[in-house]
Amino acid sequence: MQELANIFIKSIFIDNMVFAYFLGMCSYLAISKTVKTSVGMGAAVIFVLGITIPFNYLLEKYILKEGALVWISNDFIDVDLSFLSFIMFIAVIASIVQLVEMVIEKFSPSLYSSLGIFLPLIAVNCAILGGSLFMQERGYTSIVEATVFGLGSGVGWFLAIVGIAAIREKIRYSNVPPALRGLGITYIITGLMGIAFMSFMGIKL
Amino acid sequence: MKLFKNILESVKPHFIKGGKLEKMYPAYDAFETFLFVPDHTTHSGSHIRDAVDLKRTMAFVVIALLPCIIFGMWNIGDQYFKAISESSDFMKNFIFGFWKFLPLLIVSYAVGLSVEFAFAISRGHSVNEGYLVTGMLIPLIMPVDVPLWMLAISVVFAVVIGKEVFGGTGMNILNPALTARAFLFFAYPSYMSGDKVWVHGAGIDGYSGETILGALAANTTSWANLQWSFNDALMGFVPGSLGETSFIAILIGALILILSGVGSSRIILSTFIGGYLTALLFNLWGVNVLMSTPAHIHLLIGGFAFGAVFMTTDPVTATQTNKGKIIYGLLVGFFAIVIRVFNPAYPEGMMLAILLMNVFAPLIDHYIVGANIKKRLKRVKV
Q: Do B167 and A35 touch (CB under 8 A)?
């Protein structure tokens, strides 16, 4: 139980997808204009990460890893399919994103239209693929751990995008130098937020 | 004063529209506003008559800082003469500290104000008084021996990236003084942490100038076995940066801020309460020395009190709503203790906790305002 709590806290604050690895920046920068849409985007990312990572974990454990196919027959003990992991992970992510898209279109058309092109683009959001690859690299031992890691990374990304969206709403009335308006100031804010998130670097859990 | 007034009056024609130095008007305006009550009035919109303006608000913060500054200067001298084991008296300590503090203050103001003036002139807005406080706070939270060029770089970073790119005073999202400190902290860690930087001359003859937090974070001796007593921590006879050591001096500052209405008592109180409760909670757990340190000691040591009184109350970067202020304060206290306890690399959690909550302050406000709107809409329907 404590192990799970550690993974969760760690993936939110210490290994934050945005501030520690700078993953998923494209949608983070593009969708963060208002808090409302960014909450929707963040929730979608939590959902997708929370589903794709355990899915890919099973894929990794029973198909891709070296010797993973033993459950079919002992002849496959030397088979190592891990060179397929990129394409398999991407296929899983793409199909799940399709699912999310349909669900959102059905239940919240306004959110669907405000997320626009970026909803299908979650499929190529580096945070999502990054999450699956981190899962593979860090070798989580059970599907529960992988799920907790996925949800935690999602929550970390959610906090980042909602935080910057609130700041961007606030500075809408600021007299920002014309050359920096828009993306420029957003990059600077991201950097400053990164400094604040440095407070968690080095914590050992 | 008459002399200054005459000088200003005589050069004014050069600066107003159409004059030779028209572009330099913000600089002229800054001097005139700083020295005298300006004669210009609001032209449009709703008018509120109040004697309090930004200049007076800022002046009150500087007055509230005075006890910390005076005590800090004395303490710098006291720590130094203890380190070299030389006897000293009050004046000697004070004068020594004064000469350590003055260069820091001059560099901070000179560099910061030149950047502000340059921006004001090139962008054509007036110079704001915000830097008066920031420039005073920066030397108070730096180690005494920080090289002056580093101080200058961090001030430039804080003013340009932390404030001016957002449009100047009142628009920034992170507290500029803490931005300067965080910048140095991550860029030149060896000058900003450890046991040699907090007391001038600590490098010599094996004297350990580590702070209480540094000693506790080493996880070897508990609070009860340290060489400092409760009274030392309360009065501030301990190593540390200039402003942070004395709880009593900070308390006087807090009273001035609260009574004058400049600082929010909600934020100050809730920060202390948040920190105290979190520390109590960790006392129950108690697996390392900092966790089992008594909760009230946590509030006295390090920069907790100084941050709670002078940094969290920054009216620009804190939350604006009343409920939001309480949530903000509680979370600052909470994170400060959490970072202290869990992060061996940064025993001083206050700076980073405040920066972290500065980042999320607009979000807290957003939801509080949203909730208020919802509540009132409900009332309308009935």
A: no
Tens digits of residue pLDDT in B68-113:
999 999 988 888 888 777 777 888 888 988 998 999 999 999 999 9
Phi, psi at B364, each rounded to 5°: -60, -50
CA nearest neighbour of B137 among B157, B115, B108:
B108
Of A35, A195, A204, the CB nearest to B186: A195
pTM score of the predicted model: 0.87
Distance CA B81, CA B186 (A): 30
Q: Which residues of B touch A196 (CB under 8 A)?
A: 174, 182, 352, 355-356, 358-359
pLDDT reported for residue B76: 86
| B315 at A interface, C-beta within 8 A | no
Nearest to B84 by CA among B193, B211, B209: B209
- The closest alpha carbon to B179, from B195, B166, B196, B160, belongs to B160
Alpha-carbon distance values, A42 to A39, A47, A149 (Å): 5, 9, 16
**Is A75 exposed, middle or buried (CB count within 10 Å of its CB: 0-12, 13-18, 19+)?**
exposed
Q: What DSSP assignment string belongs to B4-56?
A: HHHHHHHHHHHHSTTSTTGGGHHHHHHHHHHHS-------SS-----S--HHH
Q: CB atoms < 10 A from the CB of A180, how many? A: 15
Convert B297-352 into a string of H (helix), E (strand) and C (coil).
HHHHCCCHHHHHHHHCCCCCCCCCCHHHHHHHHHHHHHHHHHHHHHCCCCCCCHHH
Chain B residue at shortest CA distance from A184: B165
The pLDDT, as a whole number, for residue B266 is 92
Angle at alpha carbon of residue B310, lines to B259 and B57, rounded to 5°: 55
Q: Which chain A residue's Cα is nearest to B185?
A: A195
- Do A193 and B362 make contact, defined as CB atoms within 8 angstroms? no
Interacting residues of A94 by C-beta distance below 8 A, sequence separation 6+: A123
Binned at pLDDT 50, 70 and 90, residue B55 comes out as confident
Q: Give me the interface pTM, i.e. the ipTM.
A: 0.85
B residues 326-345 closer than 8 Å to A (CB): 335, 339, 342-345
Mutate to test the interface with A, among B192, B312, B363, B374 (most CBs of A within 10 A): B363
Q: Is B352 on the interface with A (CB under 8 A)?
A: yes
